[in-house]
TrEMBL record:
Its EC number is 2.4.1.1. This is glycogen phosphorylase. GO terms for biological process: carbohydrate metabolic process. It holds the Pfam family DUF3417. Keywords: Allosteric enzyme, Carbohydrate metabolism, Glycosyltransferase, Pyridoxal phosphate, Transferase. Residues 103-137 are annotated as: Disordered. Belongs to the glycogen phosphorylase family. One of its GO terms (molecular function) is pyridoxal phosphate binding. The lineage of its organism: Bacteria, Bacillati, Actinomycetota, Actinomycetes, Kitasatosporales. Transmembrane segments: none annotated. It is an enzyme of class 2 (transferase).
């Protein structure tokens, strides 16, 4: 008989074992081996059955076992040591505190009173109208707190709230921030069905399953007010429909993570399902999720800070565009405190960092204009902000855009003073992709920088590798290092056989027909891994391009190769599902099924076994569509060599010592089929001619010395580069600290002044022009030829209209020119005003321009707005350059 309602009854632990609760509720156990070993010793069989989840484990341990443990002095000593270690980790100073102590301390600038609650409905037990508590004195650069918003977080398989790289990156960001002591607060959504669990039909078609997650069985606690009532984060939907969300808290080491859940009884049926699935539903469902994440997330954050005394964040970091609405809620707060929209917009931008993760327009959430207008049109959700203002932030009103679409990434960029891509190449691609937002500027000047992603070593490194540590790999003997790699490969073989057996049973196979699985893979064969999401651009089936050639590689009598593949296609992506089916059908062939396997239900638990056991990690996306590709980083941490297209992180850190680069035809004018043929052939060639021979080339000692040297180099030199700690330190110093300084500088008065200045500049800019350019060589050269070491004296007449010289900077932009006269490797030289205005209203500017390089050389003149509070010269998106007639006149004078 089926239960009509389900709930969990939590165990009451004996007093000596109470510290187990705290250890289980803090997700640090997911990357702390000693704590995991402690829980495993509680009940080894129960630990395996729970999937390594301490909360589930403690809910299933027999009372008799708990009673025995409460009397076990050895266990209690280990428990005390683990509890003390966690306390020290949570309270002791770390990198961030040391970095802060090295700076002069200065109190943050005031930002004016900020209401802690949304209009019309107070948060229970939180102050209903008082301003949010101000942050305590903070170092003159580093923020007192940072809010990190993301639609998904991959912390541990025990909290399945992720679909792929974006969520895993967010989880690693929180973990590294915790290790470094960075005062981060994560904000996301709690999806009752997570993403999905994947299985295969008998004919290899992906099938999705959505098991219900019970928050009471997860490592979460509800955020409650001082009266014990659960906090609600409310929104108002069209027609006055309320949407309320409870707030769950996970503790990720030192970092609190707030997750909003709309499945509460006060909501209607439709509203309860807003947080049912990650990336599920249609456009309206996604829009509601993103409104709840952004707007509801800020409200939950304010309630959390008010109840716990946590410092209010000075910096808000938006991880991809999904959480962009958080900027609108912060604007609403400031308007409620007395600011106008433009001043509030400037204040919010100053403290916001936006990270874009996709080089593919199709990967960005875009909504029809009317859908967004309907949800914000009545002003009930964001009073004081007209719908047209909201629409203007996200509409693609630029050349090449679709003016009827609301683009979440565009809104994220317009609401953030600082933005970044996630690798050097991705930063360049992003500048080109979003250049339309800064018309007149070359893509390289678009204000989007890059911070290359990193991965959290304690999460992704095999325990055996962790125990040795990077320093020891330089001294470890070849035989010991090779034995370590074989141990990890052997463990992967056992894991693959177990998972493959379970998969075939799900596909309907009987035990009697699965004896062949005992011979799948070989711990002494070169093992290649390929695991990731399955959009078309990642090219899951490129390896199948020439099946006969692949089969020869797999079955080579002396140098065989074996491949382990895993990945999920989005439930709505039938094209991705067909790719999976194509690969599965090939892998089902009895001739090769012992050498190539597809494992369904790829997730963190599988990944942590897969990366260490592979010898080579394969990545073959369409360049440059891989923003970063962190799976190869995780493999590298375990001594796995990379075989990848030069895309994402591999483009900037590839060296022959670390692996191999797959040649690409992305710059050639060829069709897609021809390109894939060429790149697949290059992949086969590398495997046949270079990779397999190096793996199997054994010296007199029976060891592959050259291969081991590459493994050693990967562990000692590449490993330290790919760490999430390096990434978070870069965010703190290059983005968070400048954002905090801008936030403090933008007092209400300063924000109003900056907004008024921008308004005045935009109104006057049509009258700004470069009227005349003169250029004279000194010393004069015979025939007017320019020589190295001479100087070009520039004299320029600029019309400023109603603006003052203090409002602008006049620059000469000079450098080498290509065949199209485009300036490359540019130098910017400011010109100084020397006279004006004349009768025509023009002012004269002058500057010397040193000719310090040979070859084709060119220059131009431009006028930019300038203000001390701008973060970048391109921020206002305004530029004035010479007209064609002015340029022609300048050329005549030059000659």
């Amino acid at each position: 008989m089926k239960a009509i309602r389900r709930f969990s009854v939590r165990p009451v632990l004996p007093e000596p074992l109470r510290p187990l609760n705290r250890l289980a509720r803090n997700l640090r156990w997911s990357w702390h081996p000693e704590t995991r070993e402690l829980f495993e010793s509680v009940d080894p069989e129960g630990w395996r059955e729970s999937g390594g989840d301490p909360v589930r484990l403690l809910g299933a341990v027999p009372l008799s076992r708990l009673a025995d443990l409460a009397e076990d002095r050895s266990f209690l000593r280990r428990l005390t040591a683990a509890a003390d270690d966690l306390h020290d980790y949570l309270t002791g100073p770390r990198w961030y505190q040391g970095r802060a102590a090295a700076e002069d301390r200065a109190g943050p600038g005031p930002v004016g009173p900020v209401p802690t609650v949304p209009p019309g409905e107070p948060v229970p037990s939180a102050p209903s109208a008082a301003p949010a508590p101000s942050a305590p004195p903070a170092p003159s650069g580093l923020p007192a707190a940072i809010a990190y918003f993301s639609p998904e977080f991959g912390i541990t398989a025990a909290l399945p709230q992720y679909s792929g790289g974006l969520g895993i990156l967010a989880g690693d960001h929180l973990k590294a921030a915790s290790d470094l002591g960075v005062p981060l607060v994560g904000v996301g959504l709690l999806y009752r069905h997570g993403y999905f669990r994947q299985s295969l039909s008998r004919d290899g078609w992906q099938q999705e399953h959505y098991p219900v997650l019970d928050p009471d069985e997860l490592p979460l606690t509800q955020l409650c007010g001082t009266d014990g009532r659960p906090v609600r984060s409310p929104l108002t939907l069209p027609g006055g429909r309320p949407l309320r969300a409870r707030v769950w808290q996970a503790q990720v080491g030192r970092v609190p993570l707030l997750l909003l859940d709309s499945d509460v009884e006060e909501n209607g049926h439709g509203e309860r399902e807003v947080t049912d699935r990650l990336y599920g539903g249609g456009s309206e469902h996604r829009l509601l999720q993103e409104m709840l994440l952004g707007i509801g997330g800020v409200r939950a954050l304010r309630a959390y800070c008010g109840l716990t005394g946590h410092p209010e964040p000075e910096v808000f970091h938006t991880n991809e565009g999904h959480a962009g609405f958080q900027g609108l809620e912060r604007i609403r707060e400031l308007i409620a405190a007395g600011a106008d929209f433009d001043a509030a917009h400037e204040a919010v931008r100053a403290g916001t960092v936006f990270t874009t993760h996709t080089p593919v327009p199709a990967g960005i959430d875009r909504f029809d204009r009317e859908l967004v207008a309907r949800h914000f049109g009545d002003g009930a959700e964001l009073p004081g902000i007209e719908a047209e203002r909201i629409l203007a932030l996200g509409m693609e009103t630029y050349p090449g855009g679709e003016p009827n679409l609301f683009n979440m990434a565009v809104m994220g960029l317009r609401l953030a003073q600082r933005a970044n891509g996630v690798s050097t190449l991705h930063g360049r691609v992003s500048r080109e992709m979003f250049a339309g937002l800064w018309p007149g500027f070359d893509p390289e000047e678009v204000p989007i920088t890059s911070v290359t992603n990193g991965v959290h070593a304690p999460t992704w490194t095999a325990p055996e590798v962790t125990r040795l540590g990077a320093r020891q790999f330089g001294h470890l003997g070849d035989s010991e290092l090779w034995e370590l790699r074989r141990t990890l490969r052997k463990r992967l073989v056992a894991e693959v056989r177990q998972r493959l057996y379970a998969s075939w049973r799900q596909r309907g196979a009987g035990t009697a027909e699965l004896g062949w699985i005992d011979g799948v893979l070989d711990p002494d064969v070169l093992t290649i891994g390929f695991a990731r999401r399955v959009p078309s651009y990642k090219r899951l089936t490129l390896m199948l391009r020439d099946r006969d050639r692949l089969m020869e590689l797999l079955l080579h009598p002396e140098r065989p190769v074996q491949i382990v593949v895993a990945g999920k296609a989005h439930p709505a992506d039938d094209g991705g599902k067909r790719l999976i089916q194509e690969l599965v059908r090939f892998a089902d062939d009895p001739r090769v099924r012992h050498r190539l396997v597809f494992l369904p239900d790829y997730g963190m638990g599988m990944a942590q076994k897969l990366y260490p056991g592979c010898d080579v990690w394969l990545n073959n996306p369409l360049r440059p569509l891989e923003a970063c590709g962190t799976s190869g980083m995780k493999a590298a941490l375990n001594g796995c060599l990379n075989l990848s297209v030069l895309d994402g992180w591999w483009d900037e850190w590839y060296e022959p010592d670390f692996g191999w680069a797959v040649p690409t035809a992305d710059g050639d004018a060829i069709d897609e089929t021809r390109r894939d043929d060429l790149e697949a052939a290059a992949l086969y060639e590398l495997l046949e001619r270079r990779i397999a021979p190096r793996f199997y080339d054994r010296g007199l000692d029976g060891l592959p010395g050259r291969w081991i040297a590459m493994v050693r180099r990967t562990l000692t030199t590449l490993g330290p580069k790919v760490l999430a700690g390096r990434m978070v330190r870069e965010y703190a110093e290059r983005l968070y600290a400048p954002a905090a300084r801008s936030h403090r500088a933008l007092t209400p008065e300063a924000a109003a002044e900056l907004a008024a200045w921008k308004s005045r500049i935009r109104a006057a800019w049509p009258d700004v022009a470069v009227d005349h350019v003169e250029a004279h060589l000194t010393p004069p050269a015979p025939g007017g030829a320019a020589e190295l070491g001479s100087t070009l004296s520039l004299r320029v007449r600029v019309r400023l209209g109603a603006l003052d010289p203090a409002d602008v900077e006049v620059q000469a932009v000079a450098g080498r020119v290509d065949d199209t006269d485009r300036i490359t490797d540019a130098t910017h030289v400011p010109l100084k005003p020397t006279a004006g205005p004349d009768l025509a209203g023009s002012r004269r500017y002058e500057a010397p321009l040193a000719l310090n390089r040979t070859g084709p050389f060119g220059y131009t003149i431009r006028v930019l707005p300038t203000h001390p509070l701008l973060s970048h010269p391109a921020e206002p998106g305004l530029i004035a350059i010479p007209s064609e007639t002015t340029s022609e006149a300048a050329g005549v004078l030059m000659r």
